[in-house]
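Quick one - inputs below.
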Amino acid sequence: MAVATRGGGYAARPQPSGLAEVIDVILDKGLVIDAYVRVSLIGIEILTIDARIVIASVDTYLRFAEAVNRLDLQQADQSQGLPELMESITEGGAKSKTKGALEGAKEKLGIGGDEEEEKEERRPRRRSSQRSRKSDEE
Amino acid sequence: MRAVYVYGIAPARERTDVEAPGVGSPHAGVRRVVHGDVAALVSDIDPGPLAAARELRAHWRVLEEAISRATVLPVRFGTVMDNDEAVVERFLAPRHDQLAGQLAELAGKVQLTVRATYDEQRLMRAVVEESPAVARLRERVRGLPEAATYYDSIKLGELVAGEVEQARQRDTALVLSRLEPLAVAARAEKPSTQDGAVNTAFLVERSRVDEFSQAVAALESEIGERMRFRYVGPMPPYSFTEEEAAASWA
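Output:
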């Protein structure tokens, strides 16, 4: 993170990116094969939504988990805590309609383009940014 | 029943040995399914829910390693197909020429991403200084209980959001004007966080990466006081992979 220092001290080469900062790119971009395949993927798509919400903390947890695993105490389960997540996600996915489930869930969770509003809700000062965007369009 | 997880598409003639473990548990090795001039990078997987964060990381590592050796079109995370035949019949064969064409266009080029985030304090101070309307409304709202200034607060936030948006557009235009001439292509995308200032992706010839990096450094020393830069790459050409319809934003 301390890559950028002022006054020419900038590392003049691109840095490898951390997972957390490319999460949006990984989830939202890339070749989509075809509608048929996407439908069969619903379970995983729903998963990716929750991934976005939990990714920052989970990523940190996973780093710790890796560090702890290196201690070689026992062959511990690396994914503890995630099974519950999986279950809740799968449930949510099953309730949603097949098509558009991703979008629906995104809306419901307030993510995917609406992240800012989600955050702003917790900050009364900024509550109106969505409104401002709408009024810009009018 | 097994299935195959698809990471990306590379030219069949390029080496794409990947040592990073594949998505899923237990991890299977990454291998290729070749059809004509194109190859899909895949690994075997037990279909079913994936442990999101861990698998995202595995997905990313495979792609990162693959692009260090070859040109790779990234496939959307979480793409699973029934088997190798399905990969060929439903993906590689019907889109062979299109995929080969995209790979040819991207050959020898990498995506570099330049992002910047504002220092919020600093940005807010600038907004108040430069916008009399914001300054006035801020004075009126300050010190009063939130309930008494509900609508004024909304109005104030709206004004500030507008100013921030303008600052983003100005700064994005500045970054593009400096860096785009050194790139084959450029895309401005919406910053993904609230403090995001600039989110730009550039497709750069590998031979010009150093030159491009120097321009980034120069830009950073020029305006790095106002915002914090992140210069990331090389990464898979996500922003330049078609049917992405990479919505131009700025």
